[in-house]
Amino acid sequence: MQANPQLRALNRFGLGARPGEAGAIDPRSWLRQQINPNATRMKGLELPSAQDLAETVMSSRARDDKAQARKELRKLGRETFGREATAAIAHAMTTDNPFAERLVRFWSNHLAVSTVGEPVVSLTAGAYEREAIRPHVFGRFEDMVQASARHPAMLIYLDQVRSFGPNARAARNNRRGLNENYARELLELHTLGVDGGYDQRDVEQLALILTGWTIGGYIRQGAEGAATPFTFVDAMHEPGSKTLLGRRYPEGGEMEGSAAISALCRHPSTARFIATKLVRHFVSDQPHPLDVDIIAGVYLDTDGDLDEVSLALLDLDGALYGPERKIRSPQDFLIAMGRCLGLTSIQRKGLAGLISLRHAPWSPGSPAGFADTAVEWGDPDGLLCRVDLARLVVRSSRTILPDAGGFAASVMEVRNPALLNAMLAEQSSAVDKTALIFASPDFQWR
Q1: What DSSP state is assigned to residue 220?
Q2: DSSP, residue by residue, 268-301
Q3: Whether the Cβ atoms of residue 150 and residue 230 lie closer than 8 Å to each other
Q4: Residues 126 and 240 grouped into a single domain
Q5: How far apart are CA 115 and CA 156, in angstroms?
Q6: Which range marks the domain in which residue 420 is found?
Q7: Is the residue at 104 inside a domain?
Q8: pLDDT 10s digits, 145-162
Q9: What secondary structure does DSSP assign to 221-276, as a single string?
């Protein structure tokens, strides 16, 4: 089957075609014009900032009734997560810049935090994406990592907030010691990759470099003061020089961490790791080595300039015309249905459907984020759950399609039109016809 570049642009790089949209776009021009910092903004929403949430958490921790405070904080976390998640999905359903939004979601998952079992992260995950990810999607990768490293969602999720240097002044009166969690994930998942050429000694040294990176008021020893999303506490910081990947970092407080992150983001292993993930996400579950070489080269040549990297991605041979297909994740499946039907929001049941499909926003099972291949999302149980979700969305939308076959051809690449039309003819209601289209194998793929 010959690829349809318009539908590939809308579905593979976007979030789902709207009826009639494919005939109105030039694929590459449509994608290129979205590579614009303004394209990632969520407008018209009043959602809490990290500063607001830091003050809420500190106020809760200061209360005398700790058990009640924790209970109320968990409740607030659930409520805030629900508002943030539905707002993010509604934005994805309605945005005119779906390629930009796909990139927001890619980078948010690359530098992942998780709300699973973490009430404070449930409070801050939405703010994390808005504040640490969105502003940098078409900027420098280093700037995104620096923002992520200083955000309370990441600091709390990977326990950096409680990491004390063994010889730090504040460590003398504190049982907590060095925590390597964030340093390990920064190396393995955010920059160099598991095969990036570091060892356990580098993990330890990076953890020492990052001691003192915390949240204002979160750790009492040496960190009293007003609640702030990020602060550097010198009393928690390990004194002396450190050596990371053969480079010596003289004692320099917060700037040690900034310099280390900068060096990691410029490393050739980081370029290759990022390139592999981007090609896997947008083009093929099995990235072609030449494609990876091209993207890694652009990354290194431009000092990690993500707008140039995004442009290069569109020019890969397999981007719009290749034979490979990518399965939609459950979130993207829900969003694509919403865009097809012109929905502007989702019901609670839709969010519950994503939870049952193991793909609620900002809720991966580990710091590695959600997986990105058909092996993860193409299992029989998951596909059956998609059928139920399709019926739920169609019934709630009350959209009537006068020409189901024409609708299908306008929003997806139909591999066997005769078979699909025969199956549609067997359905007695418009709801069943639409649900069948969304549950069909062709709609699961981009």
Answers
A1: S
A2: HHHHHHHHHHHHHHHT-SS--HHHHHHHHHHHHH
A3: yes
A4: yes
A5: 11
A6: 5-29+327-444
A7: no
A8: 999 999 999 999 999 999
A9: TT--SS-EEEEE-GGGSPPS-EEETTEEE-S-THHHHHHHHHHHHTSHHHHHHHHH
Quick count: other Cβ atoms within 10 Å of Cβ 250?
Answer: 10
When divided into structural domains, the chain yields a total of 3
Q: At 247, give phi and psi (nearest 5°).
A: -105, 135
For 77, phi then psi, to 5°, come to: -60, -45
Host H or E run for residue 209: helix 200-209
DSSP letter at 140 equals B
Beta bridge partner(s), residue 214: 231
Tokens of 273: 């790791």
**Nearest-angstrom CA–CA distance, 44 and 42:** 7
> DSSP letter string over 302-314?
TTSBHHHHHHHHH
* Size of the chain in residues: 446
State the amino acid at position 147 in one-letter form: A
305 falls within a domain: yes
- Exposure string (b/e) for 39-58, b if CB count within 10 Å is 16 or more? bbbbeeeeebebbebbbbbb
Amino acid identity of residue 411, one-letter, is: V
Same structural domain, 230 and 258: yes
* Single pTM value for the model: 0.96
% of the chain surpassing 90 pLDDT: 77
Q: What's the confidence (pLDDT) of residue 406?
A: 93
Listed residues 321, 339, 357: the one ending a domain = 321
Report the candidate in 230, 209, 234, 212 with the shortest Cα–Cα distance to residue 150.
Answer: 230
200/84 same-domain check: yes
C-alpha closest to that of 56 among 310, 185, 228: 228
Nearest by Cα to 303 from 263, 257, 273: 263
Please count the other Cβ atoms lying within 10 Å of the Cβ belonging to residue 373.
14
Alpha-carbon distance of 82 to 77, in angstroms, equals 8
Report d(CA 189, CA 111) in Å as an integer: 8
Q: Give whole-number Cα distances, 272 to 185, 189, 195, 317, 319, in Å.
A: 17, 12, 10, 18, 18
Q: Above 60 in pLDDT, residue 365?
A: yes
**Token duo for residue 334:** 């829900």
| DSSP run (H or E) holding 340 | helix 330-341
3-state secondary structure of 445: strand
